[in-house]
Amino acid sequence: MTIKIYTKVGDEGQTKQVTGHMVPKYDLQIETLGQIDELESWLGVACSSLSNANLNLATEIRYLQRKLYELQADIAVKRSHNIQDRDITVLEEKIDKLNKEVPEIKAFILPGGKQVGANLQYARTLARRAERTAIRLNDTQQPLDGPELRFMNRLSDFLFILARYANFMDGYEDVRAKF
């Protein structure tokens, strides 16, 4: 059986939610899901750019992609509760572990570095944008009744330290932002 790629449902600027309800493609839930999808896709770019020194990060990136898929389900299907408090704890533990392996920073740093680190820094900004949209969704249209927002907040923190770790493993030294 082949899945049909095009449905023509969205040809007039509407899309169908999981509930079957038709909404404009700019609906806040659809926008939130799209931004999470964009982040998930960019993580695929980051994974494809892994250097030999960072091949171990593929597992971490794939883990995040799967969690983002679960997060989308939680937002799209009200009875879906994939993201749990334990997922936030896991991210915090990963952050703490990696933070011990990179040089301490005492100032703001410029995003960038080697390709992997720069891709992960960009993923961090996509995560922050998706988080802001999810907060707006929560505050105005669809309350998110679980740990989704906390997970999204911690996700960008994890991506920041993951980027720093990737740059460190590639021999890149963070560049301080000067004020």
TrEMBL record:
Highest taxon listed in the record's lineage: Bacteria
Residue ranges constituting the Cobalamin adenosyltransferase-like domain according to the UniProt record: 5-166
SUPFAM superfamilies: Cobalamin adenosyltransferase-like
The reaction(s) this protein catalyses: 2 cob(II)alamin + reduced [electron-transfer flavoprotein] + 2 ATP = 2 adenosylcob(III)alamin + 2 triphosphate + oxidized [electron-transfer flavoprotein] + 3 H(+); 2 cob(II)yrinate a,c diamide + reduced [electron-transfer flavoprotein] + 2 ATP = 2 adenosylcob(III)yrinate a,c-diamide + 2 triphosphate + oxidized [electron-transfer flavoprotein] + 3 H(+)
MF-aspect GO terms: ATP binding; corrinoid adenosyltransferase activity
Enzyme Commission number(s): 2.5.1.17
First-level EC class: transferase
Keywords: ATP-binding, Cobalamin biosynthesis, Nucleotide-binding, Transferase
Range of residues in the leader sequence: none
Entry keyword annotation includes ATP-binding: yes
UniProt GO BP: cobalamin biosynthetic process
Pathway: Cofactor biosynthesis; adenosylcobalamin biosynthesis; adenosylcobalamin from cob(II)yrinate a,c-diamide: step 2/7
Family: Belongs to the Cob(I)alamin adenosyltransferase family.
Record protein name field: Corrinoid adenosyltransferase
Source organism of the structure: Ligilactobacillus pobuzihii
